[in-house]
Amino acid sequence: MGRIAPAPALAALALAVVVSLAAASAGPAAAGARVVLLGRSWDGRAIRAVEVGNRSGTPVLVVGCIHGNETGGIAIAHALERVSPRDLDLWIVPVLNPDGVAADTRQNAHGVDLNRNFPWRWRPMSGVYESGPRPLSEREARIARALIVRLHPHLTVWFHQHLDLVWASGGDRRIEKAFARVAGLPYHPMPQLSGSAIAWQNNTLPGTTAFAAELPAGQPSPAAVARYTRAVLAAAHAP
Ligand SMILES: [Zn+2]
Fold first, then answer.
1. What pLDDT sits at residue 7?
2. Domain count, the chain
3. Are 148 and 201 a contacting pair, CB within 8 Å?
4. What is the mean pLDDT of the chain?
5. 185 alpha carbon to ligand 1 midpoint, in Å?
6. What distance in angstroms lies between residue 71's CA and the mean position of ligand 1's atoms?
7. How far is the CA of 15 from the centre of ligand 1 (A)?
8. How far apart are CA 47 and CA 64, in angstroms?
């Protein structure tokens, strides 16, 4: 897939580079990795992306955590920061919802489920799936949307918990199944949810694929982290 990255966006992105990964993280990072400050949550917490691989390669995005009480994907996101696929421009957002992680809540600091706040068939919902006052009312959702529009990812993987399946809803089934096979997660065609980030990407960026990797409950073991990391790379290279 060709990458869409107009020059002004690249310039803005260059200005947003905050630190080298070596300075930002104690762990070993892939050579050439860089950290980009995407923006801040309602409570002022930084939302960062890490870019590894080849900047002219196929753009792929991985989001480790959108629901703050589903943190199992964060370790996988950090593991992906240490790979350096030479044919992929791999973007990793370990935590899109840092306020939710801090509070151990599904929702953000405004009580909104970010995965119901995207514009595709957005509708008012309340309670656990509170969708916000309007589409993209939430900072964190706007940050994700802006990144996805800019990158035009061939593939976006969103980690969730804890249904223990690949939630496939509108992407390329060959890609979704490649992930499921390597991850060892059952593959399930599922409905496209109103206001979800996945349904929004699959319907507004034709030819791209987004899906949810619903991990089992709890924190993944090191072996599981390695397996899911391989699964992301397999999906990125499928079919
Ligand atoms: Zn979730």
1. 42
2. 1
3. yes
4. 91
5. 16
6. 9
7. 32
8. 12
